[in-house]
Amino acid sequence: xxxxxLGRNINATDPTAVLLNNTYSLGVRQQRKLAMAxxxxxxxxxVSPTYDSLMSAINDYSANPTITDxxxxxxxxxxxxxxxxxxx
Length: 88
Description:
The chain is mainly alpha-helical. The protein has a domain at 32-87. 35% of the residues lie in helices and 5% in strands. The protein is built from 4 helices and 2 strands, in the order αββααα. The chain has helices at 16-21, 51-63, 67-71, 81-87, and strands at 39-40, 46-47. A two-stranded antiparallel sheet has the order 1-2. Strand 1 (39-40) and strand 2 form a beta hairpin. The protein starts with 15 loop residues before the first helix and ends with a helix.
């Protein structure tokens, strides 16, 4: 698919009409914040990516230093780090 011309950027507050009226158009929305999602850990608890949940996962690893305990620690409040790594 060749590019028709360079520098054909269209900025709009509401891009819906612009996208509908221009064939082969692509819309991109910039968002200047990073959101995190809660996850369910091995213990079955919903945990947020906080300092405490990461420290809990690290403490699980310190108790039994294997890759399984680093990635999916069994602590009640441990963040499932293997799942987080998959998204990074």
